[in-house]
């Protein structure tokens, strides 16, 4: 099945989130969509095997999005066919006491993938320039020098923190980690409907928290800070992709296709060749094994 162009979702110039649709214009009926997704997932699993054998690149997939944007189900469905030893998912919650004794990137750094492997960050280091901008009091938990109250946070604090994140990602890329970042772009109305479904369907009640409604009240602030973070940190080494998220199934198709297309650009990824001496003796080894009793 032919792959489609996903560059339209890559952020290569400043964007305005309110001007980007939360529903895709891609035409794909349900059966074609399902078949395409399965075939691409299989190709990705094969590519993962090759990358594991090649052992020169690591892949870091970063996923951000508002509550109910579908991060968990997307990860479950997209990476289902991956070899379990080759992918690790990290879901970053509120920093614990140990993590707060280090700088804000430390807990992300120690979760980075080994060469030949994938790591998926479900919520990422960008929480440190998103949630902490909406709730500035969280910064006080980091016990930073010179910051004893919210009023002490300098105006350029978040700009500098974004610079540190860009430097961090450049460092990773320059040392063989392929960094791909995804913002699942959900509409406020679709979030409302999904929250209602969590309340209406008993089996999904456990997913609901009153805190979801509290955070929903900061919707405009989050959109502004996401937009700023994406515009300041979408680089050649670590690009952002804004994926329409109102249709979960199409979101998964676009997300998976984007990863496949980006990794396919690395023409040097291939299975390692046998040493000449081993190649020369393949028939000898085959005969030896065939004659075993």
From TrEMBL:
InterPro entries: P-loop_NTPase, Polyphosphate_phosphotransfera, PPK2-rel_1, PPK2-related. GO terms for molecular function: kinase activity. Residues 28-265 form the Polyphosphate kinase-2-related domain. Keywords: Kinase, Transferase. The keyword Transferase applies. It holds the Pfam family PPK2. NCBIfam families: PPK2_rel_1. Belongs to the polyphosphate kinase 2 (PPK2) family. Class I subfamily. This is Polyphosphate kinase 2 family protein. It comes from Flavobacterium ichthyis.
């Amino acid at each position: 099945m032919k792959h489609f162009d996903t560059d339209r979702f890559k952020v290569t110039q400043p964007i305005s989130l309110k001007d980007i649709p939360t529903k895709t214009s891609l035409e794909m009926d349900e059966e074609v969509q399902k078949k395409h997704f399965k075939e691409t997932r299989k190709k990705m699993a094969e590519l993962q095997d090759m990358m594991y054998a090649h052992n020169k690149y690591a892949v870091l997939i970063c996923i951000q999005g508002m509550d109910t944007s579908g991060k968990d189900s997307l990860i479950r469905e997209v990476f289902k066919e991956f070899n379990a030893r080759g992918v690790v998912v990290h879901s970053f919650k509120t920093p614990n006491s140990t993590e707060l004794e280090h700088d804000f990137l430390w807990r992300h750094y120690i979760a980075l993938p080994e060469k030949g492997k994938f790591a998926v960050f479900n919520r990422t280091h960008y929480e440190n320039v998103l949630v902490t901008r909406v709730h500035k009091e969280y910064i006080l938990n980091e016990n930073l020098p010179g910051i004893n109250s919210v009023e002490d946070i300098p105006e350029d604090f978040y700009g500098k923190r974004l610079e540190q994140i860009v430097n961090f990602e450049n460092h990773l890329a320059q040392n063989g980690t392929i960094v791909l970042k995804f913002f699942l772009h959900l509409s406020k109305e679709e979030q409302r409907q999904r929250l209602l479904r969590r309340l209406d369907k008993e089996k999904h009640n456990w997913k609901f928290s009153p805190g979801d409604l509290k955070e929903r009240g900061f919707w405009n602030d989050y959109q502004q800070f996401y937009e700023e973070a994406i515009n300041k940190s979408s680089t050649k080494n670590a690009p952002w992709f804004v994926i329409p998220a109102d249709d979960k199934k199409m979101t998964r198709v676009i997300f998976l296709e984007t990863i496949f297309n980006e990794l396919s650009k690395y023409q040097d990824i291939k299975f390692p060749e046998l040493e000449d001496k081993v190649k020369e003796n393949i028939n000898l080894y085959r005969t030896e094994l065939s004659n075993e009793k």
